[in-house]
Structure formats: C-alpha cells, structure tokens
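protien #1 (seq + structre)
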Amino acid sequence: MPLRNGLSEELNRQGNEHFARGLYTEAYTCYAKALECDRMTGDQRAMAATLGNLGNICAVSGRRESAQTYYQEVLELQKILGDEKGIGTTLGNLGNLRADAGEWDRARAYYLESLDLLTKTHDEAAKAVLFSDLGLVARENGQFDQAIQYYEHSLVLMRRLGNQGGVADAWRMIGRTFLLQKRYEDAIACCQTSQSIAERSRDELRTGGARYVLAQCYEDQGRLQEAADLLELVVHMDRKYQLPKLEENTNRLIQLRARLAETNPAPPYRESHA
C-alpha cells in the first residue's frame, strides 16, 4: 500500500512539472495514472488532490464539462473529509468555470459561497483572489461601483500579504473598470501605478498587461501615437512569450498605425531645383 501511495505522489509531482511547462497532455496522463493508484488504495485525501489536479488541467485546456465533473467529485470527497478550506477552493474553481463560460450569476453564487467558507478558515490569500473574481463578475454585469469595491478589498489584502503581483493586478483591474466608465484620467493613473509596481518587480507579463489597458485609454482619448508606442511594446512581449493575443494585438497595432498615417500624412514630394 505505501508503495502505491508513493507512486501516486510521484506521478502527481511529474504531472505538476508538465503542467508548469504547458505540457497539458503529459500532465493529464500522469494525473490519470495517479488517480488509478488512489482508487486502489482508497486514500480519499490523495484522491481529492489528484482529482483537483485533473480538474485544473481540464479547465486550462478548455474542457469545461470534464473539469466540472472532476471538481464535483472533489467536492463530495472534501465534504466527507470535513475539509472546509478545500471545499472553499473547489467552489472557487467551479466559479471560475462558470465565469469562463460567461455565466456570471452562477459564477457569483459559487464565489460568494467560497468566500463565506474561506472567511471562516482565515485564508487571506484565497480571499484576495476571490474578491478580484467577484470584481470581474460585477464589472461584466455593468455594476462598476461594486466592482471597484471588490477590487479595492483585493488590493488591501494583497498589500497586507506582500503580494506585489496581486497589488499590480488589482490596480490594473480598477483602471480597466474606470476605462469602461470613460473615467480616463483615473484609469490612466491606476494603470501607471500597476505598471510601475510590475516594472520594479521585473514582471514583464504584468507590465505588458498594464500597458495594454493604458494603450486603450490613450486610443479612446485620441492620443494615437502614445497608444501605438505602448501597443508596440505589448506586441513585442506577446511575440517573446507566444501569447494568445499576439495576432489580435498585431492587427490592432497595424490599424493604429494606419490611423496615424491618415492623421499625419507625409508631406508632398518636391523636386529640388538646386
């Protein structure tokens, strides 16, 4: 029996390594083999952890229904085990699935239930993420003031935890919400704060995220050159890391440059008579 438990741990470890490198098929194979070991031993805690990993891998690879099935099985095991913190995490994961599907009311219900449990277990890090998730739901439902309140709650917790990445994210999300309200100066101030924090942390991806929203602000204000300059940096980062929005942002940059050319046409050619 211990051999099989040890094998499950090793398979999960290998799966996590593949997951971190974006090798989702290989990760899934490892987790599936680990689950076979867990079912043979009847180790419910190990089984819950492995099922959670399978749910995560399905979620990031777009297999929402499979992820839902895995998370539901995890939830049942966690209820049997009385694992309130685990239940809160799984409810949050189920909320993420519904948010990815654009089912905002269902996502909100999961998030609020998760928040209630995680408040009881004093999991401040998980609460900080949940407040951000609830901010997204409120923003997508057009409840901008409530969204900002949730993001500010997240910001306070991220600061308390010393999570600079989370602080940068919160400022960017507040800025994005201000942008939707056409409060451009507020949006720019928030995104510049986000960018500065990310730059100090040498976090290229978060720096790019802040620049992306700033570019939108400048474009909406008609500051096309500033928007194009920032978007060029974003596209460079997209290309470096092969991010999903590379093509979309490249096309947007081309359109911006075309608008700039129309706004500032080249002077007519004059033949020299010298």
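ok now protien #2
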Amino acid sequence: MLNIFCNIVFLIFFNFISSSAFTGDRSIIIQSTTSLKNSGFYDYILPIILNDIGIKAKIVAVGSGAAIRNSMNCDGDILIVHSPKKEKNFVSSGYTNTNHYLMHNHFIIIGPKNDPANIKKYKDPYKAFKKIFNLQKYFISRGDKSGTHDKELQIWDRLSINPTTYSGKWYLETGSSMGATINIAIGLGGYTLTDRATWIKFSNKKDFIVMVEDNKSLINLYSIMAVSRNKCPNIKEDDSNRFINWMLSKKGRLKVSDFKIDGKKLFYVDK
C-alpha cells in the first residue's frame, strides 16, 4: 500500500516538473527600444510567440542607447533597437554574433497645423531642419541617446549645426520618452522628430500633423540580436535563438507585417 502511495506521489511530482519544463515555463528578457512597446507591437506579437514556441518574454523598454548599455551589462538575453551606429559598436565589441534586420518604418517630423516655420512644403528633412534653425522656432528633442535622438543628431550634424549650443532657447531637450517629448512639443507649438508607429498610436494629437515624411533618409531600421554567451555566460542562448528564428521565419515576418492600428500598417519586413 505504501509503495502504491509513493508511486502516485512520484507520478504527480514528475508530471508537475515535466509540465513546468516543457510547456511554457521558459522566459527571456528583451532589452528594447520604447517605440515597439508604445505602439502596442509587443502586446500583439508576444502571445502569438508564446502559443507557437512556448517562450515568454519580459520587455525592458528604454531608449536604444540604454537598451544597448543594459545588454552590455548582461541584463538581457535579446536586444531589439534602431540605432545603427551603436549597433555596430555592440557587434564589434563581441556582444553578439549576428545582427539581424527585423523590420522598418520611417521617422517623421511633426508640428502644429499652423506650421510657424513653413516646413510642410519640404520633402527633405534637412531643408526642414535648416528652416527651423534659421527662424529659431521651437524644436523639442528627446535628448536621451535613444535611436530617435541619434537620428535627429545625424540630421543636425550633416547641416554642420550643433543644436545644443541653443539649448534652453529654441532647442529644448526633454531627456525623456517619445510620448513625453511629443506632449511638450504640442504644449509649446514646436516641432519634433518621432517614429511613425509611435505617432499613429499617440492619442492626444490635438492640432499636430505630419510635416515631413516618406523620405529615404528617414528610414527607421529595427534590428534584433541575441547577446553572446561569450560575454554574458548566464544568458539563455537557446531560447533566445528560438525566439529570433521565429521572428525571422516566414510566419514571423507575416505576423509582423499584419500588425496594424486603425487599419494602418506600422512595420514593413522587406527593405
């Protein structure tokens, strides 16, 4: 009788351990740019991935610069960002074996409908930035070393303009998220650079509209990479690779492409 009881207890324990190990109790940490979380992309895609391959993902949503620093501190298994220059440094420093193109959309310049700098006529973001500079109309920068901030500084740099010289005057740095930066721009009637996904999702647009868009120089590339076990021995390499392989698979790319808000497509998977 005792043997039967022991066998029953063993079977219950074995089934519990088996279900924990093989039916979805696996999890990874993703260091990510904020735009993918703000757009609702993770709320959409992560349940699909969990159902397909049984891997849960915890998202740490910060600017791309902070996400890369966190990953270099071994605080994540996967990195998803949109800052090409910093990504190259991450790769060359040996923190990942492969940097994969994941998807893209575009950056856009937004501003008030009355357009005080008269930039809506421009297709070229460089001309728009130069006009804002010449007229010294408010430009609100994230100022947080995020991917969006990097892109903005790239535009200023090509114009040989250092906007921080005018910090606190017409050029204002929030050091904050994209949502907070847009709110300040709206409050001041100024301009800012944002990604299209965040803008589509943003609910408090008031009289703000897209000023400059659909220029090749404003392409916004998102990359995905697994942190290397050579640098971070405790990362979950196998589950990270399974997650990435799913994202890059035909089904994964189809699901990414299908993500829409109010019928508007947010991300594209073909360069």
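The CA atoms of residues 117 and 132 lie 6 Å apart.
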